[in-house]
Amino acid sequence: MSVGSAPGFPFAVEAFSCAKAGNRREEYEDAWAIRAGTPERIARFAVADGATESSFSALWAALLVETWVRRDGVGDRFLARLGPARRLWRRKTVHRRLPWYAAEKASRGAFAAFLGILLDPTSRHWRAVAIGDCNLFQLAGLGPGLRLVKAFPLRRSEEFGSSPFLVGSVERADDDPGRHVRLAEGLLPPDATLLLASDALSAWLLRRDEEGRPAWEAVSALGVADAPEFEALVAAARDDGARNDDMTLVRVTSLAD
């Protein structure tokens, strides 16, 4: 879907998502959120990937991205402001009737990888905070010949598939997410594209680039303009070895002057 921005905001912002093959749409456990910018207001974008192994992870992923776009703060300041989201997650889950084993699992909380971006429309400066394996890609160019300029926080496809630290819905005294926060910043030139992607899509994109057959045009505005085209891309990626997982893409494209 496209997200409208105020006149004068120099970027087009679009989001696409697809559930695991064989799953219903309501079983999608990623999340994305966008606070579109104005010529004077910083835009905020986020993607989160709920861990299937934890309980009510889709709810937690959604609360994380909404917290990011609705509140200020980056890095440790963002993590320090998760109290309301954690309390809301608990209120929405604690009264559900569950078998004892499911209730015990839910008591341990939900977990999600997270990537949040701030983008200043005046300076074109962006800042990113990441925990886990949702990834950011900055591409040079807007047409054919797109190339990767930066990948963050993971740079190689083999870095995916491990067990990254994830943000939890239950705060614990011995759990310090601040040690796992990764920060980055950069400038988005007029001929550039910024992508935020969940892990399965990110790993596939990096592997294709490493193999000398980049798929950047396939995820650019040249390749994906609507939901059916994104679903076709996801199907092709899975045929090409991408893991069967929820896939999410937020694309920020510079507009021509």
Protein model, in words:
- With 257 residues, the chain is an alpha+beta fold.
- The chain has one domain: 4-Layer Sandwich (Phosphatase 2c, domain 1).
- Helix content is 26%, strand content 29%.
- The chain has seven helices and twelve strands.
- The protein has helices at 57-70, 76-79, 83-93, 100-107, 199-210, 216-219, 227-239, and strands at 2-3, 11-18, 30-35, 43-50, 111-119, 125-131, 135-140, 147-152, 167-168, 182-187, 192-197, 247-254.
- Strands 1-2-12-11-7-8 form a six-stranded antiparallel β-sheet, covered by helices on one side. Strands 3, 4, 5, 6, 9 and 10 form a six-stranded antiparallel β-sheet that branches.
- Helix 1 (57-70) runs antiparallel to helix 3 (83-93).
- 42% of the residues are buried.
- The model has no long low-confidence stretch (mean pLDDT 87).
Topology at a glance:
Elements: E1 2-3, E2 11-18, E3 30-35, E4 43-50, H1 57-70, H2 76-79, H3 83-93, H4 100-107, E5 111-119, E6 125-131, E7 135-140, E8 147-152, E9 167-168, E10 182-187, E11 192-197, H5 199-210, H6 216-219, H7 227-239, E12 247-254
Antiparallel strand pairs: 1-2, 2-12, 3-4, 4-5, 5-6, 5-9, 6-10, 7-8, 7-11, 11-12
Give a quick set of tags describing it:
globular; 6-stranded antiparallel β-sheet; 257 residues; alpha+beta; single chain; Phosphatase 2c, domain 1
Short description:
With 257 residues, the chain is of the alpha+beta class.
Tell me roughly what share of residues is in helical segments.
Answer: 25-40%
Label the CATH architecture.
Answer: 4-Layer Sandwich
**Termini gap:** 23 Å
Q: What gyration radius follows from the Cα positions, in whole Å?
A: 18 Å
Average pLDDT works out at 87
Highest-level CATH class: Alpha Beta
List the total number of helices.
7
| Neighbour order of strands in the largest sheet | 1-2-12-11-7-8
Q: What class would the helix/strand composition place it in?
A: alpha+beta
